[in-house]
Amino acid sequence: MQNNTSFRVRLQKLGTSLSNMVMPNIPALIAWGVLAALFIDSGYLPNKELSTMVGPMLTYVIPLLIGFTGGFNIYGHRGGVVAAAAAFGAIQGSNVTMIIGAMIMGPLTAWLMKKFDQAVQPKIRPGFEMLVNNFSAGFLAFGLMIFSFYAVGPVVSSLTEWVSQGVDFLMSISLLPLTNIIIEPAKVLFLNNALNHGILTPIGTQQATELGKSILFLLEANPGPGLGILLAYAFFGRGTAKSSSWGAMIIHFFGGIHEIYFPYVMMKPAMFLAVIAGGVSGTFTFQLLGAGLTAPASPGSIIAIMGMAPKGLMPHLVVLAGVLIAAAVSFAVAALILRFDKSEEDSLEAAQAATSAAKAQSKGQALPQASVEQGISQESVKRIIFACDAGMGSSAMGASLLRDKVKKAGLDIPVSNQAISTLEDTDYTLIVTQEELADRAAQRTPRAIHVAVDNFLTSPKYDEIVSQLKNESVSTVAVEEVATAEATLDLNFIDEVVFAYEQAQGSATMGQETLRAIFRRNEIKIPVISLPNTDLHEHNSKNIMVVTTIANQAAVQAAAPHAQLLVVDSLVTTPEYDKMVARMHK
Is 102 a catalytic residue? Predict the structure, then answer.
């Protein structure tokens, strides 16, 4: 099992290193796509002068940017400069777009530069540092430029042509949709960026230069399978998975953050069949109708996808058709799975916790916890970093959520997000990452404090982190009293439920809507409202139940000492709501 884990980590690292060269330069690819869509002869605004930039930008600018980025990731600016120079040789030595060549020469040149400096710089005599450094970099760049011109450029050109012919062959025999059997599960296992930007984007860009569009830009970016999964949970799911699916749907489909639906798939492994069915049917529709995009759609939002569709109504409609067909098929399969599912897990949080426990046990590890034993305090944490595969998307949203909590708590601790590959091993750093990526983050930054979560958007650990940073603790007696209260709370004697908040109302409002949906589904007529702590004195009686978090518990108890109290880890995804309803119906 350890070998499997190591292989997965190595595979993620390889894929991430490829995607990390392309993803920072996606804006340049999008700019090129817009330039071509507008100003070429068949574009929306044909312009002979401006269209002259289309070819050189794709031939030179984008590969050079990718080569520089690959070198920079290995050895900073010095590595980036020699990498770009070496990549230029591959560009001139080929007759196709040399994105793949730049992805090879960039890291290779920077790595050689780094090794040379490590061996030579300690031996340089004082006063000769600049001379040796400049000439060594120049001669290395020159030598590898010649090498890439004669070797890398022609070889990669031939390989690219073979791969393109292979894609054409798969399309000619209608087998391209079968690639989604690999793509969809790999996405859920956090290889989405590696697949899309490390493999499909370079090949798709070459196709787009020849045909004006490429179906490869749609294979991973298609939001249809994820939309179908979330719709199925919205109509046939149970508990908080059902209640939270609507918000996740908006973030996924319009925001393009696909990671948000991954936990909904992993909580029921049979859901892999649904996303595979949706991906295969969507790609089949794209191929049947001749759909494609002019440039990569990043993020995978329906807005970005439609924006990169070729000119005209029909090209947009066929793209939309593939997305909707994928969503419909994924929804149908997922709905059947949920309707015939007999498991007792009806909470997204409970399922996520069970999945994490199983993974940790299989690895022979304890689950990473945000606990006092890890030393989370204002003295030990000077900055917080949310780290994910690409350093964008879900980690940016998680960082935003915790940043707001930290700010409301009056703490002056910066919260940011970045890619795991760019993390630096420093002290006084708390790194929050997803469970699937925890091994990589821990290997790269062993000196940091690590917290693993199942979902950046709904983790209950954020309140615990804030509480520990404020040096707040709940006594053992208090914990036992809360646990007893949660076990004995009876909705039959409750006239109103109040969600209390200190300053930020967002989580309280989302929790309020979650509980209202559960009440409506179970035909419970108890009103549910949200109020700031300062207004709780008007709701201080035994027939009122106040719902709050651990971080806000003390303030609520002071404001409404006579009300019944339900303390939860997360106002949005706690399993306690369903447990209360179950006790009410007994």
Answer: no
